[in-house]
Amino acid sequence: MNFADVLFEKKMLLIGNFVLTSGKVSPYYLDLRSLPSHSEFYDVVKLALEKVKQLPHDMIVGIATGG
What we know:
Layout: H1 3-9, E1 13-19, E2 25-30, H2 42-54
Antiparallel strand pairs: 1-2
């Protein structure tokens, strides 16, 4: 099972039509607020962060809104 499948199974990745805070409509919604509750994801998140750190970037931000 891949990471996206696990997110879907844990109800963190939802498929449908979602109106975002911006007013745009998205076919999916990724809700990672419960991610810290799933210690089995720590290694995957750590690996992803290591990859992101290697990419050129000006800033990294967190999402302030939810729902």
